[in-house]
Design brief:
Elements: H1 3-21, E1 27-32, E2 37-43, E3 48-54, H2 58-62, H3 70-86, E4 93-95, H4 104-114
Parallel strand pairs: 1-4
Antiparallel strand pairs: 1-2, 2-3
Helix pairs in contact: 3-4
Length: 119
């Protein structure tokens, strides 16, 4: 079985579990590449993005956060949580996708919790 198939299965398994337990809450989705990290709060019922942040933004690049480290993930999590709270979102479900809850993904989640999001 190839790695691509394994990752796709894990991603689908996580998403299905989230749909069962979401109870109408928006989803905090994380995507990480080798150079950057992206996160967005998505309302699946309406099909729209409520808040987003990434290490590609100008403020992140000026601060020296490349996205390939834990410090950048913390900054993205904090920024995302601030934007979500401004838009009236306080409770979300965390969608780690195909990634293990470890390293940059965990750092982003912890920073979002500390900045006001509940999950």
């Amino acid at each position: 079985m190839s790695l691509k198939v394994t990752n796709a299965r894990r991603k689908q398994r996580v998403r299905n579990a989230l749909r069962r337990s979401a109870n109408g809450r928006p989803r905090l989705s994380v995507f990480r590449s080798s150079k950057h990290i992206y996160a967005q709060v998505i309302d699946d019922l309406k099909g729209e993005t409520l808040a987003s942040a990434s290490s590609l933004e100008k403020t992140m690049r000026e601060a020296g956060n490349t996205g390939a480290n834990i410090d950048a993930a913390k900054a993205v999590g904090k920024l995302l949580a601030e934007r979500a709270v401004q838009n009236g979102v306080k409770e979300v479900v965390f969608d780690r996708g195909q990634y293990l809850y470890h390293g940059r993904v965990k750092a982003l989640a912890d920073a979002a919790r500390e900045s006001g999001l509940s999950f």
